[in-house]
Specification:
The chain is mainly alpha-helical. The protein folds into 2 domains: 182 residues, Alpha Horseshoe (Serine Threonine Protein Phosphatase 5, Tetratricopeptide repeat); 204 residues, Serine Threonine Protein Phosphatase 5, Tetratricopeptide repeat, CATH 1.25.40. Helix content is 49%, strand content 7%. The strands form 4 sheets. Strands 1-5 form a two-stranded antiparallel ribbon. Strands 2-3 form a two-stranded antiparallel ribbon. Strands 4-8 form a two-stranded antiparallel ribbon. The protein is globular and about 65 Å long.
Length: 465
């Protein structure tokens, strides 16, 4: 989908962020390595207010009104790459590459919506880490919280980069000239940095949120992401322990019903991004929900196999799947976010981390350690909210299969959970071979953008591209 409208962050925010001298959302006009002004840095991070604004500016930048990876793009394009979503039109050849799982290194969405966008957020986090660390004028509590938030942001972005691209350049400073020629770091090294950042964030962030909205991550958000990372690295006991910390905090609970899950103020939310444009709720609603025109199909349709995978009586199907019939053909589409129209009150924030995932992380970690009763208790908590009966699995293999199915339904079209799950379970090839004719195993990773290979001779391409 060609993006022609331009999203320009206020010049004042540029200075506070220290990152974006010019930040455009035009998909093919982004550059990742931007110098910062040291005098500006010193000035911004000399007060609690300035330093806080700099970090808050990163959250604002993560929520454009176009589907960049932090604002719906991961759900859309991760869904297309997997067995969740299909295009109803192939007019955009770059989107068609995702739908066929046949990306090319020249794909502009891969370059601008993912690679460049993530590294812009990382640059912002690095600038904040450097400025906060160097400042001697911040109050200790503010300094600790902001440093924890910046570490969390950096870890979050690297988590998505490493799961999308595999080995990636590990940029940890604002020395843009040096980073321009940095090679890719091994996946294990990137994960080590993610864990180090999250452990530091866990120690620095308070349990209390800053304000009533949960748009700034707290200690439990860092611990929840730690639990996920431990699960991905198959550190089952550590994943269970981190998830248990979040659950034991007593701060969170499942929303009373699926329809309430993604509303602003939901107690299921651990971390959400708040819309920054007046009268705008979420990018996902704008892109997933079709217009009311009788001839307009949903752009991204839920695959029939996924729609059929909901169990009878599962209340998530009615709450999270929309449907529209066009020319006697019924299309399903993701309907987790429901506010399509503009100029309405903000009633939905963009949920990034939620309590249901923590429960299912612990369920899987427990099952892998043969604690089947404990695993079933966590799994059944999620099923109960969907008005489903308890799981009937009686052995480890059956229980892990039940958890896989539950994650498929609970997190469909949500932050590429399905795509990442299939990869880490070693299930990607059989599932995708059946779902997409001609699928090749190299498609498990995105290609390194050709434009980046040309700029940086130290980079190498992923196999198969």
């Amino acid at each position: 989908m060609k993006y022609t409208n331009i999203y320009i962050i206020n010049l004042f925010c540029f200075c506070l962020l220290l990152v974006f001298l010019t930040l455009f959302s035009c998909r093919k006009s982004l550059q990742t390595d931007l110098p910062i002004d040291k005098m500006t840095a010193t000035a911004v991070f000399s007060t609690d207010e300035g330093a806080t604004s700099a970090v808050l500016g990163i959250y604002s930048a993560m929520m454009p009104t176009l589907p960049y990876y932090s604002a719906g793009g991961t759900s859309i394009y991760g869904g297309l790459m997997s067995d969740e979503l299909s295009l109803t039109s192939t007019l955009d050849p770059e989107e068609a590459e995702f739908d066929a799982a046949k990306l090319t290194p020249a794909n502009g969405i891969v370059l601008s919506n993912f690679w460049n966008w993530a590294y812009k957020m990382i640059y912002g986090a690095n600038a904040s880490i450097e400025g906060i660390t160097a400042s001697e004028k911040l109050t200790p509590a503010v300094k600790a919280r902001l440093l924890g938030e910046a570490k969390f942001i950096r870890a979050w972005n690297y988590f998505y980069l490493v799961n999308l691209f595999g080995d990636v350049p590990l940029v940890l400073s604002t020395a843009y000239k040096e980073s321009a020629t940095i090679p890719r770091s091994a996946t294990a090294a990137v994960y080590d940095q993610i864990l180090a950042d999250l452990q530091e964030a866990k120690s620095l962030l308070p349990a209390a949120y800053a304000g009533t909205a949960r748009i700034r991550p707290n200690r439990w958000a860092a611990v929840a992401l730690l639990a996920r990372v431990r699960l991905y690295r198959q550190a089952w006991a550590a994943a269970e322990a981190e998830a248990t910390e979040v659950i034991g905090a007593g701060t969170y609970s499942l929303a009373p019903n699926p329809a309430a899950t993604f509303l602003a103020g939901s107690n299921e939310t651990l971390w959400a991004l708040s819309p920054v444009e007046s009268g705008f709720n979420t990018t996902e609603a704008r892109y997933f929900i079709p217009t009311t025109s009788a001839t307009t199909k949903p752009a991204y349709a839920v695959n029939p196999a996924l729609a059929a995978a909901f169990e009878s009586g599962d209340t998530r199907k009615g709450a999270w799947l929309g449907s529209k019939t066009v020319a006697a053909q019924t299309f399903y589409y993701p309907y987790k976010y429901k506010v399509y129209n503009l100029n309405l009150p903000v009633t939905e924030t963009y949920t990034v981390l939620r309590y249901a995932e923590v429960l299912l992380v612990r369920a899987e970690a427990r099952a892998q350690q043969d604690n089947l009763a404990g695993a079933k208790a966590d799994l059944n908590a999620v099923r109960s909210r969907a008005a489903l009966p308890p799981a009937t699995a009686t052995d480890k293999a059956a229980l892990l299969a039940a958890i896989e199915k539950e994650r498929r339904i609970e997190f469909f079209a949500e932050w590429a959970h399905r795509w990442f799950d299939l990869k880490r379970w070693g299930r990607l090839e059989p599932v995708m071979t059946a779902a997409k004719p001609g699928w090749q195993p190299y498609a498990a990773l995105f290609p390194v953008p050709q434009a980046e290979l040309l700029k940086n001779p130290s980079l190498t391409q992923n196999p198969g591209y």
